[in-house]
Amino acid sequence: MDENSSLILEGGGLRGVFTCGVLDNFMERGIKFPFTIGVSAGACNGLSYMSGQKKRAKFSNIDLLEKYDYVGLKYLFTQRNIMDFKLLFDKFPTEIIPYDYPAYEKSEGRYVMVTTNCLTGEANYFEEKHSQKRIMEIVRSSSSLPFVCPMAQVDGVPMLDGGIADSIPVVYAREQGFTNNFVVLTRNKGYRKKPSGKSLAAKLFYSKYPLLQKAIENRNYIYNRTLDLIESLEEKGLITVLRPEKPLEVDRMEKDIYKLNALYNEGYGLAAKINFEKL
Description:
Blueprint: E1 5-9, H1 17-29, E2 35-39, H2 41-50, H3 56-68, H4 74-79, H5 85-96, H6 101-106, E3 110-117, E4 123-126, H7 132-142, E5 152-154, E6 157-161, H8 170-175, E7 180-184, H9 199-205, H10 210-217, H11 219-235, E8 240-242, H12 257-272
Parallel strand pairs: 1-2, 1-7, 2-3, 7-8
Antiparallel strand pairs: 3-4, 3-6, 5-6
């Protein structure tokens, strides 16, 4: 750990409970980074890490999922969304499991959340520690999946899930000068994303956003190229990567609480084995 260290958090929907386990272990040990960047579910989990609220993300992703059942097709009819975003981004942070904005504002180090700009098809990288409203706009945008979530907005610009344009922002972190990377992935080693075949759907859904269409079509190529880079740097001993050790049984929209707890425990256990003094 040095001034060039960075923590990079992949998304993956409810597969992100693996990251919850990793971050809870880091918080217990007082592990902090000068630069942290999160995408989609990684952005959500990273916020709780930055505010130092241990087990908040686990509680949100597992315990409250069981209680409120906030994922499902029923929300497509009421909110045009696969998830109950009103609950997740309004009631959760203000009433049910309040987010500690003052602690986040005082936190040391930079925190970046990634979105995809629907006008340009490019990744946007946001840092915000002061405006509570804008913080929620950014993380909501970063988590808005294409096709099953409506576009969100940041500063009046339409945005979607950051994973469309930059699922694992290791290149951005290194360009910012943080080259001592610790990457938390939510897929096992060797995983590659297959072509989605969603180009026609993208043209139908996003006819007014041609650059977004192109980003969706190229997503698997960009994602796989990033994984190639990560594994190459890892083999050379230039970065550290923590990932699930077995092919996942947990889906992006998983509701099986047993599976979610098992994946959380795997993340926690693997993180506990990391000796930062030897990195």
